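Q: Could you fold this chain for me?
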Amino acid sequence: MPAAWRRWRAPSSPTSRCGRSHRRTATPEQAQEVHALIRARIAARDAAVAQGVQILYGGSVKPQNAREIFAKPDIDGGLIGGAALVADDFLAIIEASV
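A: Sure. Below is the predicted structure, expressed as structure tokens.
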């Protein structure tokens, strides 16, 4: 794989959130399972790239679940949506990520 892939960030969003009117939030365990699968698929081509790539969770991250989501070994961050519009919520998510 090209060296540029080492700086690549892969967004992940649970399929239950795409194009549905009744959206469900993935559990942290489900999100980890998908992220591990993505990392394994990359590792099959290049283990060093798989270790260096950042896989970002694009599901529903809120202050109440951020710490548990970001504690998962294959979740390297999140794409924060509506929670970023409320300063206190966004700050709580940031604090949960460090």
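A (continued): The two ends are 30 Å apart (CA to CA).
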